[in-house]
């Protein structure tokens, strides 16, 4: 990595430390360069694998660990030598369910990453403050959660940039992480537009909870605990009652294995 690229990673990493749509985040067209394999969404394994809204005050992002320099652009998981996992959530849906999930996480001392959909923040701007006040972190999951891999470069940029601007208005930061909508991985076109919008990383995942299919709390728990390992990045969703119900058992199961749920920035720091 050149000195200029390294400075770009560090700059983006320090900017800040997502009912869900019926289609899953990974349920849209899979790009040709997708890193996951099979139906479980597994990726590459170990690593190097503003003006505020006038009606809502700007929320300062809480202090958080900065991701380490030298990370690849596409991130599926963290180091396997850690005792940490990152639970990442598509930020959309009923805000009451989102608050319940955040409360369950905090009760267990867990911290999560919310990949927020910009239109959700437009409708519920107070959720940005709620997420950050709980010690969690926010990232960018596009403005409208469309199938971003099918868009032109300019349209993809607009989806990313509009969400980034909403995050900046509400929190003072665009967040450290971008995740493509309706795709597990960034295509080359989407990656270029994410970089253009100021993101140094595309955050994928190695564990897909499949909670968006509403299989029930026990099935969600079984899927996550059956696949998660040290360093995993788990994809989950707000807006599903089964996910809220499953979270305590998931966190307890991880704890029994010596693992703790942290933000993505903490996992990769």
Summarize the model shown:
The chain has helices spanning 3-13, 95-107, 118-123, 126-133, 153-171, 188-196, 217-227, 241-256, 264-267, and strands at residues 74-75, 84-91, 113-116, 137-140, 202-203, 207-208, 233-237, 260-262. The chain is of the alpha/beta class. Helix 2 links the parallel strand 2 and strand 3 (113-116).
Structural description of this entry:
The longest helix is centred in the middle third of the chain and has 19 residues, at 153-171. This protein has helices at 3-13, 95-107, 118-123, 126-133, 153-171, 188-196, 217-227, 241-256, 264-267, and strands at residues 74-75, 84-91, 113-116, 137-140, 202-203, 207-208, 233-237, 260-262. α7 (217-227) links the parallel β6 and β7 (233-237). Strands 2, 3, 4, 6, 7 and 8 form a 6-stranded parallel beta sheet that branches. A two-stranded parallel ribbon has the order 1-5. It is α/β, with parallel strands linked by helices and 269 residues long. The chain contains 9 helices and 8 strands. It is globular and about 45 Å long. The relative contact order is 0.24. The protein is 36% helix and 11% strand. It starts with a helix and ends with a helix. α7 (217-227) runs parallel beside α8 (241-256).
Features:
alpha/beta, 6-stranded parallel beta sheet, two-stranded parallel ribbon, 9 helices, 11% strand, globular
């Amino acid at each position: 990595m050149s000195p200029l690229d390294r400075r770009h990673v560090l700059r983006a990493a320090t900017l800040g430390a997502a009912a869900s749509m019926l289609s899953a985040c990974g349920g849209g067209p899979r790009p040709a360069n997708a890193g996951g394999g099979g139906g479980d969404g597994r990726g590459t394994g170990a690593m190097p694998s503003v003006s505020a809204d006038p009606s809502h005050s700007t929320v300062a992002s809480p202090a958080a660990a900065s991701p380490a320099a030298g990370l690849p652009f596409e991130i599926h998981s963290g180091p396997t030598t850690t005792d940490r996992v990152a639970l990442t959530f598509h930020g959309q849906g009923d805000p009451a369910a989102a608050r319940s999930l955040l409360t369950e996480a905090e009760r267990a001392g867990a911290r999560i990453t919310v990949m927020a959909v910009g239109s959700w923040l437009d409708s519920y701007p107070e959720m940005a403050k709620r997420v950050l006040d709980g010690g969690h972190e926010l990232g960018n999951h596009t403005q409208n959660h469309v199938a971003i891999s099918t868009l032109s470069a300019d349209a993809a940029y607009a989806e990313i940039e509009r969400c980034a601007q909403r995050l900046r208005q509400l929190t003072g930061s665009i967040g450290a992480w971008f995740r493509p909508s309706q795709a597990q991985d960034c295509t080359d076109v989407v990656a270029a537009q994410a970089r253009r919008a100021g993101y140094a990383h595309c955050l994928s995942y190695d564990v897909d909870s499949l909670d968006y299919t509403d299989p029930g709390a026990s099935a969600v728990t079984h899927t996550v605990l059956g696949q998660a390992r040290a360093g995993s990045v788990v994809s989950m969703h707000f807006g599903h009652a089964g996910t809220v119900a499953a979270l305590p058992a998931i966190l307890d199961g991880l704890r029994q294995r010596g693992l703790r749920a942290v933000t993505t920035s903490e996992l990769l720091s």
